[in-house]
Design a protein that fits this description.
The structure holds two protein chains of two kinds.
Chain A (H helix, E strand, L loop, with lengths): L2 H19 L1 H5 L37 H13 L13 H46 L1 H8 L37
Helix pairs in contact in A: 4-5
Chain B lengths: L11 H5 L1 H4 L36 H5 L19 H17 L52 E9 L2 H4 L5 H12 L4 E4 L14 E9 H15 L9 E2 L8 E6 L1 H4 L3 H4 L11 E7 L4 H10 L4 E2 L15 E4 L2 E4 L5
Parallel strand pairs in B: 4-7
Antiparallel strand pairs in B: 1-3, 1-6, 2-3, 5-6, 8-9
Classes of the chains: A mainly alpha, B alpha+beta.
Chain lengths: 182, 333
């Protein structure tokens, strides 16, 4: 398909989008009066830019860059099928897919269960430690239970990246001070 | 297989009671009618796609989602999520320890109350509203290894005023903008109220909304925290007073902040009318301070005086709640 054919195909498609949205307004070429004059970053929008009048010439002078941009955007959020076509796999390939899928599910399940078990163990250890501290020294236990009402992680705390940073160690680092606003 | 869609202006409660009222000679009878007649022959007043009942579509129901033959198949584990991995390995134990309070009991929320039955009119009367509050609140469960908070989803929505004042087409760039930023297909957002000063009327399409889940949520969160927030001018963080009392934190981004997303920044000339974003973090935290702690662990800064609503006592002392008021062990006297 040549570029000309492609562009003409797209043009036809955009015309259908236009005419679909402006079907009713095409019969009565009604242009609503502007409420305000908005100038948006150098682009002056006119009212009803997607509305076309039936019988108007479209080959030259009918389209503006703003209109084409809006039509392009409409094609991005339209209802047309975005998913790729269904895979056609042979029976052996389907079996392979199912085997790998089940194995991967099993791995994920084992990881999840081991994580939950570890977390549960940690929780039980916290409980046991608190109980023993309460028996040993009620004063220390009361101090340990006294925690601030609002807790925050330090502002320098980061989600780890998969690669090391460019600067491995910043020796001139100082603790950040956030502006306190009342 | 029919899709029942209640028409606008009708109450769902009315539709459920329509079985008792559909046969009536009264002039107001049609508005109580069910959309489906219940007497043979059955006529649907609601349109539905009859083609979906075709036998050739029956196999679609039996194919599971993970099968590539299914129309719902989507490749799942295509990339690791470092936010999720970070939460699983590091944050979950830390948050469990930070939120821990010893021998904690379940704190019952404010619920709708029974009438005492002193009056015969109490029979079948709707339940009394919760004490001290018009809204029922959920129970606060003890903070254990099962209730470690995490971010379930992020809601992003935008409001485009020019869709009201100029033309409804002004929604298109906003909708595409949200789709490009989040990678999720947006749904139209409609105005809930009519405000005369804004020339805004009810149920008008004035923006777009998405709910981001899964890997895209983690990607959006990482982008927001690492790319956008540090470069927003005079950005102090999310206000500590933000939150809906039940662990969901919201904040807003200006159009200048939205321009800092890489998808917008890469081609700024393409985007003529950028609107701001309202972003809500939906978490499983039971109170707002816990949700803020979770978000701060992911790198979200907070500022200002903190607001404590619906927060149980953190001292570990015994507490009870009677008629919406929390009584601690010391304050019982």
């Amino acid at each position: 398909m040549s570029l000309h054919q492609l562009s003409s195909m797209f043009w036809r498609r955009s015309q259908t989008i236009i005419s679909r949205t402006a079907f009713q307004s095409a019969a009565v070429s009604r242009i609503p009066q502007p409420l305000h004059n908005f100038e948006v970053s150098g682009v002056k929008f006119t009212h009803g830019s997607l509305e076309v009048t039936r019988g108007k010439r479209t080959k030259s002078g009918g389209s503006s860059p703003q209109k084409i941009r809006l039509v392009n955007m409409l094609s991005l959020i339209g209802r047309v099928r975005k998913a790729p076509y269904r895979l056609k796999l042979s029976y052996e390939d389907l079996l392979r897919h199912r085997t790998i899928h089940r194995a991967w599910q099993l791995v994920k399940r084992q990881e999840r269960e081991s994580r939950n078990t570890e977390l549960m163990t940690q929780y039980q250890k916290i409980q046991v430690a608190c109980d023993e501290l309460e028996k040993a020294s009620p004063e220390l236990f009361a101090q340990a239970m006294d925690k601030p009402k609002s807790l925050r992680f330090p502002p320098e705390y980061r989600i780890p990246t998969e690669t090391p940073p460019n600067v491995s160690w910043d020796s001139s680092w100082k603790k950040a001070t956030l502006p306190q606003v009342k | 297989m029919a899709f029942f869609k209640p028409s606008f202006g009708t109450d769902l409660r009315r539709q459920s009671t329509a079985f008792f009222q559909c046969r009536s000679l009264h002039s107001s009878a049609p508005q109580f009618k069910s959309p489906v007649s219940i007497v043979h022959p059955v006529h649907h007043r609601v349109r539905y796609k009859k083609s979906i009942l075709h036998p050739k579509y029956q196999t679609l129901l039996t194919i599971p989602k993970w099968d590539p033959r299914s129309h719902l198949f989507k490749p799942q584990a295509v990339q690791p999520s470092r936010v999720k991995t970070h939460w699983e390995t590091t944050l979950a134990p830390d948050l469990m320890l930070a939120n821990y309070s010893h021998n904690e009991l379940k704190l019952r929320g404010r619920k709708h109350q029974e009438w005492d039955g002193s009056s015969p009119y109490h029979v079948n009367r709707p339940l009394r509203s919760p004490a001290g509050n018009a809204m029922a609140t959920p129970d606060i469960l003890p903070r254990t290894f099962r209730t470690v908070p995490f971010v379930t989803s992020i809601w992003v929505n935008t409001f485009n005023h020019r869709a009201v004042t100029e033309h409804a087409e002004r929604n298109i760039p906003s909708t595409v903008m949200i789709q490009q930023i989040t990678g999720v297909k947006p749904a139209p957002a409609y105005s809930g109220v009519s405000i005369m000063q804004w020339r805004l009327r009810k149920e008008r399409n004035v923006g777009a909304v998405v709910e981001i889940k899964g890997a895209k949520k983690d990607q959006f969160l990482a982008t927001l925290v690492e790319v956008v927030m540090p470069r927003v001018k005079d950005f102090q963080g999310i206000a500590n007073s933000s939150g809906d009392k039940f662990g969901n934190i919201s904040f807003g981004l200006d159009p200048e902040g939205v321009r800092l997303f890489p998808e917008i920044e890469g081609n700024p000339d393409l985007w003529s009318g950028i609107t701001g974003l309202n972003i809500t973090f939906v978490t499983t935290a039971q109170t707002d301070p816990e949700a803020r702690l979770l978000l701060s662990s992911l790198g979200v800064p907070f500022y200002g005086r903190e607001r404590f609503h619906n927060v149980p006592n953190l001292d570990g002392t015994k507490q009870t709640r009677k008629k919406g008021v929390v009584y601690y062990e010391n304050s019982q006297e």
